[in-house]
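tool_call predict_complex ligand=magnesium ion
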Amino acid sequence: MYKAFFFDMDGVLFNSMPRHAKAWEEVMQRHGLRFTVRDTYVNEGRTGHSVIDECYLATYGTEAPDGLWQLIYEEKSRAFERQGEPEAIDGVREVLDYLCSLEPKVQIWIVTGSAQHTLFDRLERFFPSVFSSERMITADDVTHGKPDPEPYLKAWERSSLSKDECCVVENAPLGVRSAKSAGLTCLAVNTGILLPQDLEEEHADKVFDNMHQLLQWLRQLN
Ligand code: MG
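tool_result ok
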């Protein structure tokens, strides 16, 4: 059994991706940019700036001018916030409860590109006593976000364990790429609209259709 689990947040703990997709589509359209729901899922993990630049380049043949990309990103953030707080991903509470019940205790980490100040409060509200503020890697802790390996390498270093004792739980192709380039085992749960192949192509060690399948697989390990 693994001794540490590194959980991504968007699309793994919280069902926030449909809200991101809706916000991106709405705002990009307003600026004459074509951006599909699939684009949101494929690009998950990249910075807003690089997502806007690439989309702008495809439409206008040049990167988004300074000032404009910030404006688009602010509009997108507001469109996301307006939709209210996302719910927990179906079945993830059962996965976390199971991992918390194991003896000897396993480490449970959050590794996210998000940098909200209220992050820990929200985690505590949704998943009481599962996470600790010392076992979190956020956007504030890294120079290069996913798909760079840095976020997962940082979690691994701080865990004081060997790489084969650590296991990542991801939902996004670029998150899987980050975990695999860090040399870690990566379990992918396809909680969104992508095809299993999208995650397999990034060399996820296992791809599950939902959290219930992941739980079943974890139970068999012990
Ligand atoms: Mg994610």
